[in-house]
Design a protein that fits this description.
The chain has helices at residues 5-27, 31-50, 66-78, 84-104, 110-116, 133-141, 148-162, 167-171, 203-217, 241-258, 268-281, 286-293, 302-321, 324-337, and strands at residues 178-179, 186-190, 196-200, 229-232, 235-238, 341-342, 345-346. The chain is mainly alpha-helical. It has two domains: 5-116, Orthogonal Bundle (DNA polymerase, domain 1); 133-346, hpI Integrase, Chain A, CATH 1.10.443.10. The strands form three sheets. It has a three-stranded antiparallel β-sheet, with no helix packed on it. A two-stranded antiparallel sheet has the order 4-5.
């Protein structure tokens, strides 16, 4: 296979600009996704050097063609012992880079079709396990508000659930993205594919947000300051996803001791999933829920619908297994003691 030093160097420059400029500032703010991009391209270059005997400066467009990529995926499985889901993530990352490459130089446009021709590995569909409204209530109840840290995480976790937002969408919020003085207050989040969407904030969520802002940002907040920030050596920076996941698990462990419905290994996306499920259970139209979540494809919320139906069947099975008298008592008790957590409202 012929190689071109000048072409190889140019492709390397595109890889560098993709990782340093395009991915973090245009494509995504997710630390996890950025790590995936870096890992995939590192492993791809490693494979080209070790297995295909390319020097990194001599790679060509042919390296990104269907046959080559399929060989790389096989190597990831057999030599790197990566699972099928992980290999699919690597493929998705490489596809993103190839799309970027094709936009930088028209001669690489054909590579989009090449990489699209590489099939994802078939894997069992993994379900996200939802959590009940009671579990959400318990989770929020174990967060102590006696410290500034506790108040911050109470607001953050409340927003994650009430807005059904992705973790990076909430952590990327800046003060200028809050529109709390409107008649119908809302926040503006930047989702996947750099798509903006407005999420309405209800009164109780607005109230704790205003208290939080007063405590952490003062009377005149900097519009460009992150809503949730860390102070690192005097520099105010965006909170890390790792830190939030860690503290969320610690709260979940406490909540689990009170209510086993709250999983000990709770992760942020389960709160988004839980909110969607609860909205569906409360009778909201599928299209409205999809819009609320920022999904352009209605098929994407099928996972949430499946969970909702399963939960309803479970309740019906319990009711059928009980005597009518006991079932009536249980229904009345649950009704009287239920917590209403819909669109962020708790009563």
């Amino acid at each position: 296979m012929k190689t071109s030093s000048s072409e190889g160097k140019m492709i390397l420059k595109y890889i560098s600009s993709f990782l340093k400029d395009y991915a973090p500032y245009v494509k995504t703010g997710s630390e996890h996704t950025l790590r995936n991009y870096t890992t995939a391209l590192d492993q791809f270059l490693e494979w080209l050097e070790d297995e295909k005997k390319f020097s990194t400066s001599n790679i060509t467009s042919q390296c990104f063609e269907t046959k080559m990529i399929e060989e790389w995926l096989t190597w990831l499985q057999n030599e790197k012992h990566q699972s099928k889901p992980t290999v699919n993530v690597r493929l998705a990352s490489l596809r993103t880079f190839v799309r970027y490459l094709s936009k930088q130089d028209p001669k690489y446009r054909y590579l989009c079709e090449e990489v699209r021709g590489v099939s994802r590995l078939k894997t069992p569909k993994r379900k996200i396990h939802g959590i009940s409204k009671g579990a959400v209530k318990t989770l929020l109840s174990v967060i102590s508000t006696s410290s500034l840290s506790g108040r911050r995480y109470l607001v953050l976790i409340t927003l994650l659930y009430s807005c059904a937002a992705r973790l990076d969408e909430i952590l990327s919020l800046k003060m200028k993205d809050l529109f709390l003085e409107r008649e119908d207050p809302f926040i503006r989040v930047l989702g996947k594919g750099s798509k903006c969407r407005n999420i309405t904030i209800l009164k109780n969520v607005k109230s704790i947000l205003l208290l939080y802002i007063q405590s952490f940002h003062g009377d005149k907040p900097n519009p460009d300051a992150y809503l949730f920030f860390t102070n690192h050596k005097g520099k105010y920076e965006k909170m890390s996803q790792t830190a939030v996941r860690k503290i969320l698990r610690s709260y979940a462990e406490k909540a689990n001791e009170i209510n086993p419905d709250c999983p000990r290994d709770l992760h942020p996306h389960q709160l988004r999933h839980a909110k969607a499920t609860h909205l569906l259970e409360d009778g909201l139209n599928d299209f409205i829920v999809a819009e609320f979540l920022g999904h352009s494809n209605l098929e994407t919320i099928k996972d949430y619908i499946d969970v909702s139906i399963e939960q309803k069947k479970e309740v019906m099975n319990i009711l059928k297994s009980e005597q009518d008298k006991d079932a009536t008592k249980k229904w009345k008790t649950d009704k009287n003691c239920s917590i209403r957590i819909i669109a962020g409202t708790m009563k």
